[in-house]
Every structure is written in structure tokens, then in C-alpha cells.
Design a protein that fits this description.
Blueprint (H helix, E strand, L loop, with lengths): L4 E5 L11 H10 L4 E3 L8 H11 L2 E6 L19 H18 L3 E3 L11 H25 L3 E4 L16 H11 L4 E6 H7 L3 H8 L3 E6 L16 H10 L5 E4 L12 H9 L16
Parallel strand pairs: 1-2, 1-8, 2-3, 3-4, 4-5, 5-6, 6-7, 7-8
Helix pairs in contact: 1-2, 2-3, 3-4, 4-5
Length: 286
């Protein structure tokens, strides 16, 4: 079994370095990471980030499409009726960054149920819009040899209005779209909150899964913080099932990021990976 490959989520980790992604990349490299992910890198130029990636030797493995008008409460546009043009403009920006940064995957954010609307009343129209946008996105991404991801975000705790909120819903939409370069993003935090049954769900949806993210439930802290999930078991399960993608560390550190990485150092050591050169054996891109 190959050990898992971990990516530092720079939108959540190393905030003590300030807001500049270049500084967070440097901190992630010093901590032993060989890969990183970031939600929205668009506050810095792609050229600046490409230079930082080259300097640190890190690989960027995931970025998101732009969120839309955050001042109006938007968080993604993929399924939002009337916002198709804005979604497609944002997609072009995401693809441009992915191309220059060598990033292989783009999270195609679904977005929220519009303000004042009932989910049940708009669900059919939103799914229709999402399917159309995903088909368009798949074609655009294919021209660049990129993979698109869709991620269910829990609507019980994190975002009550997020349209895509369960793996079953996401898988159904992916099967309807039927494009080989669109995959499912498994965030264990969200999946546990919405339905639990992680062992069976990981086994059932593994053929669709292109990326994994981790955080403890319910406080979204480090994997070894108090909570519901047994991460040593879940990591071993992913290994046994032959998962070869990245595992994004999208959690809220309880203090200094480095001091909270004991769980990851313990994982690396248990797999025979030397601390300080932590993923040298496990991080060869597939």
C-alpha cells in the first residue's frame, strides 16, 4: 500500500505568516509538505505564485473557481440561476491560474440557494443550471487536461443555504453530466455531519472521488483533536482501497500551525517517511 500524500490548505493553515500566499507556501515547505491547495489565489498574480512555487518546490494541486459577489452573500456560482455568464467568466480565470501554476484540479463551486428562496422550490432549476455549467466546464477543462471537482458542503452546521450538500446528490449530478474529467471531492468533515457512515460511503463513492480533505468533527480542528472521527483508521482505509490522490489539510488549527502537525509527523513516521523530508517517497505525482 502506498502512503497518502498530504497537501497544506493555505486558506486555513499558516495564518500566522500573514495573508501572503508566498509566505504560507514557504512555511508549508519548511513543515515538510510537498503539495498545497488554496481556495482563491486571485489576490496575487499567477506569476508571483508560480515563482513562489518554484522557490519552495511545492506543487499546487487544487484551487477553486471564484466565489462571486461575496458582499451579496455568494459562495460559488455553478448552480445559481441567472449567473451563468459570471460562472463561465470565473471559470476562465481559474483555468488561467491553473495553467500557469501547473495545478491539475479546479473545484467548481455550486453556490447557495438564492436569498429568500426555498430550497425545495428552486432545487430543480438549480440542478439544471449546474448540469449545464458542469458540461461546459468539463469541455473547457479538457482542453487544458484539467480535472473539475464538485464538493458537497454540509447544510446543517457550515452553510444552511449551500445547494450541493450530500455525496448522494453530488454523485447523482456527476452521473447525469457524464464527463470523465469531473470527479467528486470528499471532505470528511462535511460528509460526517450530513450522513456519517463514512466507511460505507467511502467504499461506495471511491470510483468517483478525485480529492480528499480532512478536519475533525464538530470543531473542524486537527485530525488528532477531540471529536467524532478516527483518522488513523480512515487513513488506513484510504490506503487499503488504493486511493492515490491528495489529502488536503483543510482544518482550523487550534494554535500555531506547526505545533499542531504532530498528527501528520506521526503518520509519516509510521509509514517510514523521514521527518524533514516527509513526503519524499509518497509525493511523486501519479
Amino acid at each position: 500500500m502506498a502512503p497518502l500524500r498530504f497537501a497544506a490548505n493555505l486558506s486555513w493553515l499558516f495564518s500566522e505568516q500573514g495573508s501572503a500566499l508566498s509566505a504560507r507556501l514557504e512555511a508549508a515547505a519548511r513543515a515538510g509538505f510537498r503539495a498545497a491547495e488554496v481556495a482563491w489565489p486571485y489576490g496575487e498574480t499567477a506569476a508571483q505564485l508560480a515563482a513562489a512555487l518554484k522557490t519552495t518546490g511545492l506543487r499546487l494541486v487544487l484551487l477553486n473557481t471564484p466565489p462571486g459577489a461575496t458582499d451579496l452573500g455568494e459562495l460559488g456560482l455553478g448552480a445559481v440561476p441567472g449567473r451563468q455568464d459570471a460562472f463561465r467568466e470565473g471559470l476562465e480565470l481559474a483555468v488561467a491560474y491553473a495553467r500557469e501554476l501547473g495545478c491539475p484540479q479546479v473545484h467548481l463551486m455550486a453556490g447557495r440557494v438564492p436569498q429568500g428562496a426555498e430550497r425545495s422550490a428552486v432545487a430543480r432549476d438549480m440542478e439544471t443550471v449546474f448540469v449545464e455549467n458542469l458540461r461546459h466546464a468539463a469541455d473547457v477543462l479538457a482542453r487544458e487536461n484539467l480535472v473539475g471537482l464538485v464538493e458537497p458542503i454540509n447544510s446543517r452546521l457550515t452553510d444552511p443555504r449551500y445547494f450541493l450538500d450530500t455525496p448522494e446528490q453530488a454523485a447523482s449530478i456527476l452521473r447525469r453530466v457524464d464527463r470523465p474529467n469531473l470527479r467528486l471531492q470528499l471532505d470528511m468533515f462535511h460528509w460526517q455531519i450530513m450522513g456519517g457512515n463514512l466507511t460505507a460511503n467511502i467504499r461506495a463513492f471511491l470510483p468517483l472521488i478525485g480529492h480528499v480533505q480532512v478536519a475533525q468533527v464538530p470543531d473542524r480542528g486537527e485530525p488528532d483533536s477531540p471529536g467524532e472521527l478516527n483518522f488513523p483508521y480512515l487513513f488506513q482505509l484510504l490506503e487499503e482501497l488504493g486511493y492515490t490522490g491528495y489529502v488536503g489539510c483543510e482544518y482550523r488549527p487550534r494554535g500555531d500551525t506547526n505545533e499542531g502537525l504532530g498528527w501528520l509527523r506521526a503518520y509519516w513516521e509510521s509509514r517510514g517517511l523521514a521527518p524533514g523530508n516527509a513526503e519524499s517517497q509518497a509525493d511523486v505525482p501519479t
